[in-house]
Amino acid sequence: MSTVAYEIVDVFTDRPFAGNPLAVVFDAAALATSQMQSLACEFNLSETVFLLPPTTDATYRARIFTPERELPFAGHPSVGAAVVAMRRGLFGEGQVVQECGAGLLPITVTAAGGATLTGGTPTLGPPRDPEPLLALAGLRAEDLAEGAPRSAGCGLEFVFLPVRPEAVPAATVLDPRAAAMLEVTGMSVFAWDKDSRTAHARVFCPAVSVPEDPATGSAALGLGVWLTAAGLLPGEGTTSYTVHQGAEMRRPSTLACTATAVGGAVTSATVTGHVVPIARGEMAVPPFIG
């Protein structure tokens, strides 16, 4: 029976058994999409990333799967895959380019086991009615904080719901059917501290059967877009901010971010995190399903 090599790492943490776990599968060029999906289901983590040769002028290609479907892009698989590939000698430290469904994304990898990912093109949706979004998260009108809820992203969009600090741990997992009716595929419920430029966030992804995610790089990137549009980050220049996530899941995570803005709109955003090795091995290749 043929096998593929894999590693499991924890991303956006400097210690094991925290952050967001990730499976990285190597030499995936011979795998069909259905086989990748079966392997992602077997790992049953929020995401599994498969490394392949690039088809364009990139260092490598990444395909990212949840247990149920493929994503064009995600943050912790991108950061984790780059560091793991560097450690395995696929390339050295420094800047590399990842090819994925969101395009060609620059990633800077360090020998210490960290990586800085530059997200895709920033996007921003119109303001949304907060009442049904609060109800979706099991919260009340008085829990709402400064800023209009709206979607934002840098390759993968989330709805951002600003709430008071005490409301973050009180939020409940989103009902998938109710979320679908509101056209919410993923939502970040967060509290913002202006003085420290720090967010305490919880991210729910009902559309991909991830009830709650302990560290979400793509949502951290989108948060910078939202914060700038809300006037909570400067509208000119590059500003750093930090996202703390995963505490409620006992997997504390730290995401160090920047947002670069021109004329009040974000033009690019980055997220940085550390990657901790956990396990490695081989897994049987599932049968091909044509």
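[next item in queue]
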Amino acid sequence: MNYPIVIYPCVEGGFVAEIPALCGCLAQGETLEETLEELMIVKELWLETAQTHNQKLPSLEAEIAKIKMLSAA
């Protein structure tokens, strides 16, 4: 699933990226490329863990609607 991603620069350098729909799913790196690569690893681990524990995944459509609503404000 392709949940919305938020990326922001760190004061000390590098970047942080997160997937707000997946609580705690975030990664940090020195470059954008490294940060996104790390985030994809963390995302896969997050989804595997959720599946192992039979957790319901957030609705992709609902998460996109939240982002659109926040963007319009």
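[queue empty]
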